[in-house]
Amino acid sequence: MKKLSFATAAIVALGAVNAASAADLAARSYTKAPAPAAVGYNWSGFYAGVMGGYGWSQRVRLDGFAVSSNEINGGFGGGTIGYNWQTPGSMWLWGIEVDAAGSAIKYREALLPNLTFEDKVRAFGSVTGRAGVTAGAALFYAKGGYAWANNQVSLTVPNVATVSESKTHSGWTVGGGVEYMFASNWSLKGEYMYADYGNARYGDATTGFTDLGLTTHTVKGGVNYHFNSPVVAKY
Length: 235
What we know:
Layout: H1 2-29, E1 38-41, E2 45-62, E3 65-85, E4 92-112, E5 115-135, E6 138-157, E7 161-181, E8 186-204, E9 208-226, E10 231-234
Antiparallel strand pairs: 1-10, 2-3, 2-9, 3-4, 4-5, 5-6, 6-7, 7-8, 8-9
């Protein structure tokens, strides 16, 4: 009889231990792990970067007449600085951007067997306003404003002499692009711009004067460093 009572007590005690363990396990299974912090983006602040690309033009203006050509083209490379304003929690962005580039966009033609004409955009740049909309790490924007270009016209007699003249043209530009934040302070961008640099007068009283006008299309890629990290944690 004593053996039976001892066995019964052992079974009851074992059941109690199992019940407590099961209750503890159930409680643990319903304990949620802390949720990871969400990532937010605010693009406000200064940035600077490098860029490069390809430019071309289908025509130039000579004394008011349009001259078409598919041979005005070349590469370029330079830098960018700018500032963005974005209200926290808003998807809209406003900014100002300044860029400049050295250029090899040019057109060359043999006028005579011993005379070569060349028109080359040696450098160009712009000061533009920028407006965009953000979508997470991406920014879609349009921009436009003032544009300038340093253009050089040359006549060359091979192995004899080269006569050249440079002028700075002033005009306007408009375009847009997309920028993507791939790290806490770094972004990549792709951009298209159209520019009309207006007319400038070349020549002198001896050779005569020519009014030359320039328009270009450019596509570029670039990388920017943002001094205030746009990537922030949202709890």
